[in-house]
Amino acid sequence: MDFEYIELGIIELIRKAETELPEDVIKALKSAYDIEDDIAKTQIDAILKTIDLAKKTKRPMCQDTGIQTFFVDVGIDFPHIKKLKKIILNGVKRATDEIPLRPNTVDPFTGVNHKDNTGDFIPYITWDFVEGSDVHIVSLPKGGGSENMSKLGMLKPGVGIEGVKDFIVEEMIKAAGNPCPPTVVGVGIGGGADLALKLGKKSLLRPVGVRNKDKKIADIEMELINRINATGIGPMGLGGKTTVLDVHIEKAHRHPASLPVGIAVQCWADRRANMIIHKDGTWEVK
Length: 286
Ligand code: SF4
Prior knowledge:
Blueprint: H1 3-19, H2 23-35, H3 38-57, E1 69-75, H4 84-98, E2 124-130, E3 135-139, H5 144-147, E4 151-155, H6 160-175, E5 183-191, H7 193-202, H8 215-229, E6 244-254, E7 259-266, E8 273-277, E9 283-285
Parallel strand pairs: 1-2, 5-6
Antiparallel strand pairs: 1-3, 3-8, 4-7, 5-7, 8-9
Helix pairs in contact: 1-4, 2-3, 6-8
The structure holds iron/sulfur cluster.
């Protein structure tokens, strides 16, 4: 198998994520443009022009090219599972030079930056194992400004779902313009502390506009979209009707004594791209 050829696929995956927003996000931003006025409309217009330019020039749409983050579903019959981590790592290093990406990983103690977007536990990869022989990789570069607005609430179970909703709205009011709105808010409810945050981030893989399959949760997502947008924070925090493009909720069962709520905020640069690697080493990026 030509592993270097698969590395090229990883570079293309990252390039696609960094330079082309998914259609669902563009559609939501265009809808926001239609309903906004004044400064909010100007902000969305600037965002749409930036997206267009990034696609045409194949340059990253934001100077913060994020922490390289991947969600990988590995088919258990893929023949080279043990090579995958190295392939992704090498792809990230090469993409840093070739796209190029901002070197975004520093040691928290020494401040040392290897300048290739790798380091301890970075790129950050979540592995899942599934039936079949294909490997499905989602690239989700995560910017620092929106990541800084992440929040974990270990709520008292007595507050109930109404308390959960209030917590999310209050945190988004506190975040204001910092995460570069309009955002997509990913929420994980239940599990333990780490699982709640992980579910929140994983929910960002769901396209904008797609509701949770559980009608009760879908209704809460809609309610939160309306409540957060009613705050008037608006695009880039300058006022307007569109503070969030979407709210996605995922849940896990929880300990009776705990009600964890993990919030992962994604900025307007809601970057996502997909790659499939087949067992013969061929790949597609979309
Ligand atoms: S939060 Fe997003 S849009 Fe804002 S600077 Fe960071 S990556 Fe760019």
